[in-house]
Amino acid sequence: MATTASRSQQIIEQAQRYIPGGVSSANRLVEPNLVFTRAQGAYLFDAEGRRYIDYHAAFGPPLLGHCHPEVQQRAAEAMASIDVVGVGSSELEAQLAQKICEHMPSAEKVLFCNSGSEATYAALRLARAVTGRQKIIKFQGCYHGWHDAVLMNVISPADKVGQPDPLSAGMLPQAIENTLVLPFNDLAAVEQVMQEQGSEIAAIILELIPHNIGTVLPHQEFVQGLRDLTSQHHAVLIFDEVVTGFRHGLGGYQKALGVTPDLTTMAKAIANGFPLAALVGRADLLDHCRPGGDVFFAGTFNAHPASVAASLATIEILERPDSYPHLFDLGTRMRDGLTAMVQRHGLRATVAGFGSVFLLYFMEPPIESYEDLLRNDAETFVTYRRALIKRGIYELPVNLKRNHISLAHTAADIDESLAAADAVLTSFS
Ligand code: PMP
Protein backbone atom coordinates (compact mmCIF):
# COMPACT_ATOMS: atom_id res chain seq x y z
CA MET A 1 0.00 0.00 0.00
CA ALA A 2 1.42 3.39 -0.99
CA THR A 3 2.05 5.68 1.99
CA THR A 4 1.62 9.43 1.59
CA ALA A 5 4.64 11.51 2.57
CA SER A 6 4.07 13.83 5.52
CA ARG A 7 4.00 17.57 4.86
CA SER A 8 7.50 17.86 6.40
CA GLN A 9 8.78 15.09 4.17
CA GLN A 10 7.39 16.79 1.08
CA ILE A 11 9.01 20.11 1.97
CA ILE A 12 12.35 18.43 2.76
CA GLU A 13 12.34 16.57 -0.54
CA GLN A 14 11.58 19.73 -2.53
CA ALA A 15 14.26 21.68 -0.63
CA GLN A 16 16.88 18.98 -1.12
CA ARG A 17 16.09 18.80 -4.82
CA TYR A 18 16.85 22.48 -5.35
CA ILE A 19 19.10 23.60 -2.46
CA PRO A 20 22.36 21.80 -1.55
CA GLY A 21 21.44 19.76 1.52
CA GLY A 22 18.08 21.53 1.53
CA VAL A 23 19.37 24.37 3.72
CA SER A 24 21.07 27.73 3.23
CA SER A 25 23.47 27.73 6.19
CA ALA A 26 26.04 25.18 7.37
CA ASN A 27 24.56 24.42 10.80
CA ARG A 28 20.93 24.02 9.77
CA LEU A 29 20.89 20.39 8.69
CA VAL A 30 20.76 18.38 11.91
CA GLU A 31 18.94 15.22 12.97
CA PRO A 32 16.03 15.11 13.45
CA ASN A 33 15.55 17.15 10.27
CA LEU A 34 12.46 19.16 11.19
CA VAL A 35 10.52 21.68 9.16
CA PHE A 36 9.18 24.58 11.16
CA THR A 37 6.34 26.46 9.54
CA ARG A 38 5.44 28.90 12.33
CA ALA A 39 7.31 30.73 15.08
CA GLN A 40 5.48 32.69 17.76
CA GLY A 41 6.86 34.10 21.00
CA ALA A 42 8.76 31.32 22.77
CA TYR A 43 7.45 28.58 20.48
CA LEU A 44 8.16 26.90 17.18
CA PHE A 45 5.56 24.80 15.35
CA ASP A 46 6.53 22.12 12.87
CA ALA A 47 4.74 21.34 9.63
CA GLU A 48 2.64 18.75 11.45
CA GLY A 49 1.53 21.39 13.97
CA ARG A 50 3.58 20.10 16.93
CA ARG A 51 4.69 22.79 19.40
CA TYR A 52 8.26 23.14 20.71
CA ILE A 53 9.60 25.52 23.34
CA ASP A 54 12.42 27.15 21.37
CA TYR A 55 15.81 27.62 23.02
CA HIS A 56 17.86 27.45 19.83
CA ALA A 57 16.36 30.80 18.82
CA ALA A 58 18.14 30.83 15.46
CA PHE A 59 21.49 31.19 17.30
CA GLY A 60 20.19 34.22 19.17
CA PRO A 61 18.21 36.91 17.30
CA PRO A 62 14.67 36.68 18.73
CA LEU A 63 15.58 38.14 22.12
CA LEU A 64 12.05 39.46 22.64
CA GLY A 65 10.47 36.29 21.22
CA HIS A 66 9.58 35.33 17.66
CA CYS A 67 7.37 37.62 15.54
CA HIS A 68 7.14 40.24 18.29
CA PRO A 69 4.04 42.31 17.46
CA GLU A 70 5.52 45.75 18.26
CA VAL A 71 8.69 45.03 16.31
CA GLN A 72 6.77 43.66 13.35
CA GLN A 73 4.41 46.63 13.34
CA ARG A 74 7.22 49.19 13.42
CA ALA A 75 9.07 47.40 10.62
CA ALA A 76 5.89 47.23 8.51
CA GLU A 77 5.14 50.93 9.13
CA ALA A 78 8.64 51.90 8.06
CA MET A 79 8.39 49.84 4.89
CA ALA A 80 4.96 51.27 4.08
CA SER A 81 6.36 54.78 3.96
CA ILE A 82 9.85 54.23 2.53
CA ASP A 83 11.65 51.17 1.30
CA VAL A 84 15.17 51.06 -0.13
CA VAL A 85 16.28 54.43 -1.51
CA GLY A 86 20.01 53.88 -1.62
CA VAL A 87 21.16 57.48 -1.48
CA GLY A 88 21.61 60.02 1.28
CA SER A 89 21.11 59.85 5.05
CA SER A 90 17.95 58.45 6.60
CA GLU A 91 16.02 59.68 9.61
CA LEU A 92 15.56 56.30 11.35
CA GLU A 93 19.17 55.29 10.74
CA ALA A 94 20.42 58.47 12.40
CA GLN A 95 18.13 57.88 15.39
CA LEU A 96 19.32 54.30 15.75
CA ALA A 97 23.00 55.23 15.51
CA GLN A 98 22.48 57.83 18.27
CA LYS A 99 20.69 55.28 20.48
CA ILE A 100 23.48 52.73 20.09
CA CYS A 101 26.10 55.38 20.91
CA GLU A 102 24.16 56.29 24.06
CA HIS A 103 24.13 52.67 25.24
CA MET A 104 27.37 51.03 24.09
CA PRO A 105 30.51 52.17 25.94
CA SER A 106 32.78 51.79 22.89
CA ALA A 107 30.41 53.41 20.39
CA GLU A 108 31.26 56.93 19.27
CA LYS A 109 30.08 56.23 15.74
CA VAL A 110 28.23 53.42 13.99
CA LEU A 111 28.23 51.77 10.57
CA PHE A 112 25.37 49.44 9.64
CA CYS A 113 25.53 46.30 7.54
CA ASN A 114 23.51 43.08 7.33
CA SER A 115 25.32 40.23 9.06
CA GLY A 116 27.86 39.53 11.74
CA SER A 117 30.32 38.26 9.14
CA GLU A 118 30.15 41.53 7.24
CA ALA A 119 30.76 43.46 10.45
CA THR A 120 33.84 41.44 11.46
CA TYR A 121 35.14 41.59 7.89
CA ALA A 122 34.88 45.39 7.94
CA ALA A 123 36.41 45.61 11.42
CA LEU A 124 39.48 43.61 10.39
CA ARG A 125 39.95 45.49 7.12
CA LEU A 126 39.75 48.77 9.03
CA ALA A 127 42.25 47.51 11.63
CA ARG A 128 44.68 46.49 8.89
CA ALA A 129 44.23 49.83 7.16
CA VAL A 130 44.89 52.00 10.21
CA THR A 131 47.85 49.95 11.46
CA GLY A 132 49.39 49.08 8.09
CA ARG A 133 49.85 45.55 9.49
CA GLN A 134 48.56 42.18 8.31
CA LYS A 135 48.43 39.69 11.16
CA ILE A 136 45.53 39.21 13.52
CA ILE A 137 45.07 37.18 16.69
CA LYS A 138 41.93 35.16 17.35
CA PHE A 139 41.18 32.54 19.98
CA GLN A 140 40.45 28.83 19.72
CA GLY A 141 36.69 28.31 20.05
CA CYS A 142 35.61 31.77 18.91
CA TYR A 143 33.56 32.12 15.72
CA HIS A 144 33.53 35.42 13.87
CA GLY A 145 31.84 34.55 10.58
CA TRP A 146 32.44 32.84 7.27
CA HIS A 147 35.22 34.94 5.70
CA ASP A 148 38.80 33.78 5.20
CA ALA A 149 40.45 35.83 7.94
CA VAL A 150 38.53 34.16 10.75
CA LEU A 151 36.98 30.89 9.53
CA MET A 152 39.24 28.65 11.52
CA ASN A 153 39.68 26.92 14.87
CA VAL A 154 36.16 27.01 16.25
CA ILE A 155 35.10 23.49 17.29
CA SER A 156 38.40 21.81 16.38
CA PRO A 157 39.12 18.11 16.88
CA ALA A 158 41.73 17.48 19.57
CA ASP A 159 44.51 16.83 17.06
CA LYS A 160 43.91 20.21 15.36
CA VAL A 161 44.09 22.33 18.50
CA GLY A 162 47.32 24.35 18.51
CA GLN A 163 47.60 24.42 14.71
CA PRO A 164 45.66 26.12 11.90
CA ASP A 165 42.27 24.44 11.44
CA PRO A 166 40.54 26.12 8.45
CA LEU A 167 36.86 25.24 8.17
CA SER A 168 36.50 25.45 4.42
CA ALA A 169 38.22 24.48 1.23
CA GLY A 170 39.04 27.42 -0.99
CA MET A 171 40.34 29.76 1.70
CA LEU A 172 43.38 31.88 0.79
CA PRO A 173 46.55 30.38 2.32
CA GLN A 174 47.78 33.92 3.05
CA ALA A 175 44.64 34.59 5.10
CA ILE A 176 45.20 31.44 7.14
CA GLU A 177 48.89 32.26 7.69
CA ASN A 178 48.08 35.76 8.87
CA THR A 179 45.66 34.57 11.56
CA LEU A 180 47.33 33.45 14.77
CA VAL A 181 45.17 31.29 17.03
CA LEU A 182 45.74 31.31 20.79
CA PRO A 183 44.01 29.70 23.79
CA PHE A 184 41.22 31.78 25.38
CA ASN A 185 41.85 33.18 28.89
CA ASP A 186 45.61 32.60 28.49
CA LEU A 187 47.13 36.06 28.82
CA ALA A 188 50.69 34.74 29.00
CA ALA A 189 50.32 33.21 25.52
CA VAL A 190 49.16 36.56 24.12
CA GLU A 191 51.93 38.44 25.94
CA GLN A 192 54.52 36.19 24.39
CA VAL A 193 53.20 36.63 20.85
CA MET A 194 52.90 40.39 21.30
CA GLN A 195 56.44 40.56 22.61
CA GLU A 196 57.76 38.69 19.58
CA GLN A 197 55.47 39.97 16.82
CA GLY A 198 53.62 42.97 18.30
CA SER A 199 54.73 45.32 15.53
CA GLU A 200 53.08 43.02 12.95
CA ILE A 201 49.74 42.53 14.73
CA ALA A 202 46.88 44.65 13.34
CA ALA A 203 44.18 43.42 15.70
CA ILE A 204 43.10 41.08 18.42
CA ILE A 205 39.51 39.89 17.94
CA LEU A 206 37.55 37.89 20.50
CA GLU A 207 34.08 36.89 21.53
CA LEU A 208 33.89 38.45 24.98
CA ILE A 209 32.08 35.29 26.07
CA PRO A 210 32.87 32.51 23.59
CA HIS A 211 29.24 31.48 23.16
CA ASN A 212 30.03 29.53 20.01
CA ILE A 213 31.29 26.78 22.28
CA GLY A 214 28.50 27.23 24.82
CA THR A 215 29.65 29.57 27.55
CA VAL A 216 33.22 30.16 28.66
CA LEU A 217 33.38 33.16 30.96
CA PRO A 218 36.37 35.45 30.44
CA HIS A 219 38.65 36.35 33.30
CA GLN A 220 38.44 40.11 33.77
CA GLU A 221 42.27 40.28 33.98
CA PHE A 222 42.51 38.46 30.64
CA VAL A 223 40.33 41.00 28.85
CA GLN A 224 41.97 43.94 30.65
CA GLY A 225 45.35 42.44 29.71
CA LEU A 226 44.31 42.37 26.03
CA ARG A 227 43.28 46.01 26.34
CA ASP A 228 46.67 46.95 27.82
CA LEU A 229 48.70 44.91 25.32
CA THR A 230 46.88 46.26 22.25
CA SER A 231 47.26 49.84 23.50
CA GLN A 232 50.95 49.30 24.22
CA HIS A 233 51.61 47.78 20.77
CA HIS A 234 49.25 50.12 18.85
CA ALA A 235 47.08 47.26 17.67
CA VAL A 236 43.27 47.43 17.42
CA LEU A 237 41.17 45.61 20.02
CA ILE A 238 37.91 44.23 18.59
CA PHE A 239 35.16 42.80 20.77
CA ASP A 240 32.83 40.60 18.76
CA GLU A 241 29.51 41.15 20.56
CA VAL A 242 27.42 39.61 17.79
CA VAL A 243 25.86 37.24 20.34
CA THR A 244 26.30 39.21 23.56
CA GLY A 245 25.29 42.65 22.22
CA PHE A 246 21.83 43.56 23.60
CA ARG A 247 21.37 39.98 24.85
CA HIS A 248 23.43 40.61 27.97
CA GLY A 249 22.59 44.31 28.17
CA LEU A 250 22.09 47.31 25.91
CA GLY A 251 25.72 48.16 26.61
CA GLY A 252 26.85 44.67 25.64
CA TYR A 253 28.97 42.50 27.90
CA GLN A 254 31.76 45.12 27.70
CA LYS A 255 29.72 47.32 30.01
CA ALA A 256 29.45 44.55 32.60
CA LEU A 257 33.15 43.79 32.31
CA GLY A 258 34.27 47.42 32.39
CA VAL A 259 36.73 47.13 29.49
CA THR A 260 36.28 49.24 26.35
CA PRO A 261 37.62 48.08 22.99
CA ASP A 262 38.48 50.19 19.94
CA LEU A 263 35.86 48.49 17.80
CA THR A 264 32.80 46.33 18.51
CA THR A 265 30.76 44.19 16.14
CA MET A 266 27.07 43.56 16.79
CA ALA A 267 24.31 41.61 14.97
CA LYS A 268 21.77 38.89 15.81
CA ALA A 269 19.57 40.24 18.63
CA ILE A 270 19.92 43.93 17.77
CA ALA A 271 16.89 43.85 15.45
CA ASN A 272 15.10 40.85 17.03
CA GLY A 273 15.17 38.72 13.91
CA PHE A 274 15.49 41.29 11.15
CA PRO A 275 18.85 41.25 9.35
CA LEU A 276 20.97 44.01 10.83
CA ALA A 277 24.57 44.26 12.00
CA ALA A 278 26.74 47.11 13.17
CA LEU A 279 30.39 48.02 13.41
CA VAL A 280 30.73 50.55 16.21
CA GLY A 281 33.69 52.17 17.89
CA ARG A 282 36.14 55.05 18.01
CA ALA A 283 35.12 57.92 15.73
CA ASP A 284 38.70 58.48 14.53
CA LEU A 285 38.79 54.88 13.28
CA LEU A 286 35.29 54.67 11.79
CA ASP A 287 35.80 57.99 9.98
CA HIS A 288 38.24 56.19 7.67
CA CYS A 289 35.13 54.49 6.23
CA ARG A 290 33.28 57.68 5.28
CA PRO A 291 32.67 58.10 1.55
CA GLY A 292 35.96 59.21 0.02
CA GLY A 293 37.91 57.90 3.00
CA ASP A 294 40.71 55.38 2.49
CA VAL A 295 38.67 52.35 3.70
CA PHE A 296 35.83 51.19 1.47
CA PHE A 297 32.59 50.26 3.19
CA ALA A 298 29.35 49.74 1.26
CA GLY A 299 26.24 47.60 0.81
CA THR A 300 22.97 47.93 -1.10
CA PHE A 301 20.89 46.80 1.86
CA ASN A 302 22.96 48.41 4.64
CA ALA A 303 20.69 50.06 7.23
CA HIS A 304 17.61 48.58 5.60
CA PRO A 305 14.54 50.55 6.85
CA ALA A 306 12.67 47.45 8.09
CA SER A 307 15.68 46.31 10.13
CA VAL A 308 16.45 49.77 11.45
CA ALA A 309 12.84 50.30 12.56
CA ALA A 310 12.83 46.83 14.13
CA SER A 311 16.01 47.67 16.03
CA LEU A 312 14.59 50.96 17.36
CA ALA A 313 11.51 49.07 18.60
CA THR A 314 13.72 46.39 20.14
CA ILE A 315 15.74 48.97 22.05
CA GLU A 316 12.61 50.66 23.37
CA ILE A 317 11.31 47.35 24.69
CA LEU A 318 14.67 46.45 26.23
CA GLU A 319 14.82 49.86 27.91
CA ARG A 320 11.67 49.01 29.93
CA PRO A 321 12.68 48.36 33.53
CA ASP A 322 11.30 44.79 33.66
CA SER A 323 12.95 43.47 30.50
CA TYR A 324 16.45 42.47 31.62
CA PRO A 325 15.33 41.32 35.09
CA HIS A 326 12.85 38.96 33.38
CA LEU A 327 15.52 37.57 31.01
CA PHE A 328 18.10 37.16 33.76
CA ASP A 329 15.63 35.72 36.31
CA LEU A 330 14.48 33.05 33.88
CA GLY A 331 18.10 32.23 33.08
CA THR A 332 18.83 31.77 36.78
CA ARG A 333 15.67 29.69 37.25
CA MET A 334 16.74 27.37 34.43
CA ARG A 335 20.38 27.06 35.54
CA ASP A 336 19.46 26.54 39.21
CA GLY A 337 16.87 23.92 38.25
CA LEU A 338 19.35 22.04 36.08
CA THR A 339 22.10 22.26 38.72
CA ALA A 340 19.80 20.75 41.36
CA MET A 341 18.89 17.98 38.91
CA VAL A 342 22.50 17.15 38.09
CA GLN A 343 23.22 16.83 41.82
CA ARG A 344 20.12 14.73 42.46
CA HIS A 345 20.94 12.33 39.64
CA GLY A 346 24.65 12.27 40.54
CA LEU A 347 25.61 13.06 36.95
CA ARG A 348 29.01 14.03 35.59
CA ALA A 349 27.61 17.24 34.12
CA THR A 350 28.03 21.01 34.49
CA VAL A 351 25.50 23.78 34.01
CA ALA A 352 26.91 26.87 32.32
CA GLY A 353 25.66 30.15 30.94
CA PHE A 354 25.16 33.81 31.65
CA GLY A 355 22.01 35.96 31.72
CA SER A 356 19.51 34.41 29.32
CA VAL A 357 21.99 31.83 27.97
CA PHE A 358 22.29 28.33 29.42
CA LEU A 359 23.47 24.84 28.58
CA LEU A 360 24.35 21.56 30.14
CA TYR A 361 27.79 20.13 29.42
CA PHE A 362 28.39 16.44 30.10
CA MET A 363 31.72 16.90 31.83
CA GLU A 364 33.14 18.21 35.07
CA PRO A 365 34.58 21.69 35.60
CA PRO A 366 36.82 23.64 35.12
CA ILE A 367 35.65 25.26 31.90
CA GLU A 368 38.06 28.07 31.12
CA SER A 369 38.93 27.49 27.47
CA TYR A 370 38.09 25.36 24.44
CA GLU A 371 40.79 22.90 25.42
CA ASP A 372 38.78 22.06 28.58
CA LEU A 373 35.70 21.35 26.46
CA LEU A 374 37.44 18.49 24.70
CA ARG A 375 36.42 16.54 27.82
CA ASN A 376 32.72 17.06 27.06
CA ASP A 377 30.87 13.83 26.19
CA ALA A 378 29.58 14.93 22.78
CA GLU A 379 27.53 11.81 22.22
CA THR A 380 25.56 12.16 25.46
CA PHE A 381 25.19 15.91 24.81
CA VAL A 382 23.47 15.24 21.46
CA THR A 383 21.47 12.23 22.72
CA TYR A 384 20.12 14.33 25.60
CA ARG A 385 18.98 17.07 23.23
CA ARG A 386 17.36 14.66 20.78
CA ALA A 387 15.40 13.19 23.67
CA LEU A 388 14.30 16.70 24.71
CA ILE A 389 13.09 17.43 21.18
CA LYS A 390 10.86 14.34 21.37
CA ARG A 391 9.32 15.96 24.46
CA GLY A 392 8.69 19.29 22.73
CA ILE A 393 11.78 21.17 23.96
CA TYR A 394 14.00 22.42 21.14
CA GLU A 395 17.70 22.70 21.96
CA LEU A 396 19.90 22.37 18.85
CA PRO A 397 21.24 18.78 18.88
CA VAL A 398 24.81 19.78 17.97
CA ASN A 399 27.78 19.52 20.33
CA LEU A 400 28.51 22.61 22.48
CA LYS A 401 25.69 24.79 21.12
CA ARG A 402 24.20 27.24 23.61
CA ASN A 403 20.52 27.86 24.41
CA HIS A 404 18.74 31.20 24.56
CA ILE A 405 15.79 32.35 26.65
CA SER A 406 13.66 35.21 25.31
CA LEU A 407 11.44 37.82 26.86
CA ALA A 408 8.47 35.77 25.62
CA HIS A 409 9.41 32.73 27.72
CA THR A 410 7.58 32.38 31.03
CA ALA A 411 8.41 30.70 34.32
CA ALA A 412 5.90 28.02 33.28
CA ASP A 413 7.90 27.37 30.09
CA ILE A 414 11.08 27.00 32.13
CA ASP A 415 9.38 24.62 34.57
CA GLU A 416 7.92 22.54 31.74
CA SER A 417 11.41 22.34 30.20
CA LEU A 418 12.96 21.35 33.54
CA ALA A 419 10.38 18.57 33.95
CA ALA A 420 11.28 17.25 30.49
CA ALA A 421 15.01 17.46 31.33
CA ASP A 422 14.37 15.56 34.56
CA ALA A 423 12.59 12.77 32.69
CA VAL A 424 15.45 12.48 30.19
CA LEU A 425 18.20 12.65 32.84
CA THR A 426 16.39 10.01 34.91
CA SER A 427 16.87 7.61 32.04
CA PHE A 428 20.63 8.49 32.01
CA SER A 429 21.39 7.94 35.69
N1 PMP B 1 30.40 36.55 15.40
C1 PMP B 1 29.81 35.75 16.28
C2 PMP B 1 30.24 35.80 17.72
C3 PMP B 1 28.81 34.87 15.89
O1 PMP B 1 28.24 34.05 16.78
C4 PMP B 1 28.39 34.88 14.53
C5 PMP B 1 27.27 33.98 14.04
N2 PMP B 1 27.13 32.79 14.69
C6 PMP B 1 29.05 35.75 13.65
C7 PMP B 1 30.03 36.57 14.11
C8 PMP B 1 28.66 35.79 12.21
O2 PMP B 1 27.41 36.35 12.08
P1 PMP B 1 26.48 36.06 10.81
O3 PMP B 1 26.08 34.62 10.88
O4 PMP B 1 25.34 37.01 10.99
O5 PMP B 1 27.30 36.37 9.61
From TrEMBL:
<keyword id="KW-0627">Porphyrin biosynthesis</keyword>
<dbReference type="InterPro" id="IPR015422">
    <property type="entry name" value="PyrdxlP-dep_Trfase_small"/>
</dbReference>
<comment type="pathway">
    <text>Porphyrin-containing compound metabolism; protoporphyrin-IX biosynthesis; 5-aminolevulinate from L-glutamyl-tRNA(Glu): step 2/2.</text>
</comment>
<dbReference type="InterPro" id="IPR049704">
    <property type="entry name" value="Aminotrans_3_PPA_site"/>
</dbReference>
<dbReference type="Pfam" id="PF00202">
    <property type="entry name" value="Aminotran_3"/>
</dbReference>
<comment type="similarity">
    <text>Belongs to the class-III pyridoxal-phosphate-dependent aminotransferase family. HemL subfamily.</text>
</comment>
<keyword id="KW-0413">Isomerase</keyword>
<dbReference type="InterPro" id="IPR015424">
    <property type="entry name" value="PyrdxlP-dep_Trfase"/>
</dbReference>
<dbReference type="GO" id="GO:0042286">
    <property type="term" value="F:glutamate-1-semialdehyde 2,1-aminomutase activity"/>
</dbReference>
<protein>
    <recommendedName>
        <fullName>glutamate-1-semialdehyde 2,1-aminomutase</fullName>
        <ecNumber>5.4.3.8</ecNumber>
    </recommendedName>
</protein>
<dbReference type="InterPro" id="IPR015421">
    <property type="entry name" value="PyrdxlP-dep_Trfase_major"/>
</dbReference>
<keyword id="KW-0663">Pyridoxal phosphate</keyword>
<dbReference type="GO" id="GO:0006779">
    <property type="term" value="P:porphyrin-containing compound biosynthetic process"/>
</dbReference>
<dbReference type="GO" id="GO:0030170">
    <property type="term" value="F:pyridoxal phosphate binding"/>
</dbReference>
<dbReference type="GO" id="GO:0008483">
    <property type="term" value="F:transaminase activity"/>
</dbReference>
<dbReference type="InterPro" id="IPR005814">
    <property type="entry name" value="Aminotrans_3"/>
</dbReference>
